[in-house]
Amino acid sequence: MSPREYKLIFTGSMGAGKTTAIAAVSEIEPCSTDVANNDSGGHAKATTTAALDYGEITLTGGDKLRLYGTPGQSRFDFMWKILGQGSLGVIILIDNSRPDPLRDLRDYAQAFGDALAESRAVVGIGRWQTHPSPSIEEFHEAVRDLGYAAPVLSVDVRERRDVLMLLDVLFHQIEAAEQHAVPAIADMETP
Amino acid sequence: MSAETKLVSRTEASIYHAHIDALMTLQPEISGVLISTVDGFEIAAKLTPGLSAAKLSAMTSSLLALAEAMCKETASGACRDMVIDAEKSRILLMELPHHKQKLVLAVLCTNKVTLGQVLWAVRTCREQLSRRLDML
Predict the structure, then answer these.
(1) Where do the domains of chain B lie?
(2) Right CATH number for B3-134 from 2.170.130.20, 3.30.450.30, 2.30.42.10, 3.40.190.290?
(3) What's the pLDDT at A184?
């Protein structure tokens, strides 16, 4: 069987770490579309993603994960729709240091509702160690209140193993949902 | 956030609008002009009713960022212009150099426009605008 390709989306608020997460695991130099950030109220960082991030991981057996990161701001929501087309699953990254992380979760869950409805999503909570409120359980409840079932994990997207864990959990979700074999991230070749 | 109130002085805004008006007078086939920040905030615009400057600013930002990434990937050097040739119109996208911050320019034209002519006019406008802004 010829190698397959899987399209996965990293989304979430500005500064949640989408670009960092893809860079942490991509085996190619990631494609980024960072531009100067003029919205210091939204986030103090110097640059922001205007179109997409892109990275790749090759799995044992040759199957490939194509990783796409969305811009975070809602003014770029047209890119969310474009990038979401044909994706197998979605990783929603939340920055728990932001003013209302639960609202962020609801906003992105709504935008990527199709993936959540089909259990093809996982939620990663960043900066939870320094900002423990809302708790992981509160995020679980928020996901349940939205009528979805998605794993919620605390992650540090600068750490390759944390991002791989997110991908692994996402694939288990997809596997459980679709009930057919998909490759395990744990078997991934080291770049 | 309103980029016009936070990123642009009244003097700058009047300069932008004057150059937009002059360009549209010179080239009647230009139906709209939009100047925005590289991260998609509107700075100045003159568009036909029904078009959202906010949405088009974000789209211009995405398209030019993607074009730059493609130029980098293909070792093509700096991205100069981007031309979208559509069934009913042509859209030119380009950077607008400014000593304070890099801006982007989107020009909407009818499909009757002579591309070379409008490109020349827009580039000339861009250079004049950059020079004028650098004098501030």
Answers:
(1) 3-134
(2) 3.30.450.30
(3) 57
- A-B Cβ pairs (cutoff 8 Å, strict): 67
Q: Which residues of A touch B2 (CB under 8 A)?
A: none
| Å between A186 CA and nearest CA of chain B | 30
- With an 8 Å Cβ cutoff, are A50 and B3 in contact? no
Query: Which residue shows structure tokens 């004098």?
Result: B135
| Residue-level pLDDT at B134 | 85
Task: Give the distance from CA B24 to its chain's centroid.
Answer: 13
Q: Which of A36, A42, A52 lies nearest to residue B38, judging by beta carbons?
A: A36
Give how far A41 is from chain B: nearest CA, Å.
8
User: Tens digits of per-residue pLDDT, A17-35?
Assistant: 999 999 999 999 999 999 9
A43 contacts chain B (CB < 8 A)? no
Structure tokens at B93: 């996208």
CATH number, position A157: 3.40.50.300
Domain ranges, residue A120: 5-187
B45-102 confidence digits (pLDDT tens): 999 999 999 999 999 999 999 999 999 999 999 998 999 999 999 999 999 988 888 8
The amino acid present at A189, given as its one-letter code, is E
Distances in Å between the Cα of B87 and the Cα atoms of A94, A156, B55, B91, B123 are 41, 47, 21, 11, 24
Number of domains in chain A: 1
